[in-house]
Amino acid sequence: MIITHYGKQFFKVQLGDTTLAFNPISKDSKVKAARFGADVALSSINHPDYNGVDTVVYGEKEPLAITGPGEYETRGVFIKGIPTEVTIGGKKYINTIYLFELDNIKICFLGAYAGKQLPAVTNEVIEEIDILFVAIDGNERVTPADAYALAISLEPKIIIPMDYDENTKALKTFLKEGDAEEVKALDKYTVKRKDLEGCAGDIVVLDSQS
Questions:
Q1: CA dist., res. 182 & res. 162, Å (int)
Q2: 20: β partners
Q3: Which residues, in sequence order, are CB contacts of 117 under 8 Å at separation 6+?
Q4: Based on the number of CB atoms within 10 Å of its own CB, is 204 exposed (0-12), middle (13-18) or buried (19 or more)?
Q5: Which residue, 19, 24, 81, 112, has most beta carbons within 10 Å?
Q6: What is the pLDDT along the chain (210 residues), one digit of tens a residue?
Q7: How far apart are CA 76 and CA 79, in angstroms?
Q8: Alpha helices, DSSP H only, in the chain?
Q9: Where are the domains of the chain?
Q10: Closest by Cα among 20, 34, 18, 140 to 86
Q11: Strand 77-88 vs strand 91-102: parallel, antiparallel, or unpaired?
């Protein structure tokens, strides 16, 4: 599996000829959006920074769009979307947390969810996470310290911070919380199930390729 970051919460997850895009940046965002073809496009929240499903339509590839809570199955991948509530710019939104398994690796994508812990009803559904994506931007939604507390409470093997963009202070704070200040950013993260053996809350930082 190969994971690539394109800014904000925009990630490409590839396994063989299957490509999933998470929270692609829309053309209406102030942030520059990358373009590539995806088989599945998942959007956690109906906001220009995270709902650019059309930006991952490329050539003959037109993705299945998943834009909210529910259960989905496509290309042999079962995806579960769990609703939560967030506030951005003083406006409330429904944020969908996505859970899925790919190549025997369990992944949880929290989207823009904020707080030191998940609601009890949500937390009961999320278990045995291998890779966790968590937003760390230090604004009204979440502080880096809160984000780390939330991430570590879910006991993932790998934590991938997101949505800090050029806010290097937020990233430094997050890494300090995790005693991981020496972690170097990668261009992409290539991982197999065997690579996760012995990992417990390890932080992987990905540079934006956009």
A1: 18
A2: 13, 40
A3: 123, 149, 150, 153
A4: middle
A5: 24
A6: 999 999 999 999 999 999 999 999 999 998 888 889 999 999 999 999 999 999 999 887 889 999 999 999 998 999 999 999 888 878 889 999 999 999 999 999 999 997 788 888 787 788 899 999 999 975 565 789 999 999 999 999 999 999 987 668 899 999 999 999 999 999 999 999 999 999 999 999 999 998
A7: 10
A8: 120-123, 144-153, 168-177
A9: 2-203
A10: 140
A11: antiparallel
DSSP tag of 165: T
Comparing CA positions, the residue from 28, 23, 59, 26 lying closest to residue 40 is 23
Neighbours of 15 (CB within 10 A): 15
97, 125 contact by CB (below 8 A): no
* Confidence (pLDDT) at 64: 95
Query: To which CATH superfamily is domain 2-203 assigned?
Result: Ribonuclease Z/Hydroxyacylglutathione hydrolase-like (3.60.15.10)
CA-CA distance, 196 to 175, in Å (whole number)?
A: 19
Using the structure block, give the residue that is written with the tokens 């006991």.
155
Residue 202: CA count within 13 A, CB half-sphere:
14
pTM: 0.94
Structure tokens at 48: 């220009």
Lookup: tokens for 4: 């690539």
Burial status of residue 91 (CB atoms within 10 A of its CB: 0-12, 13-18, 19 or more):
exposed
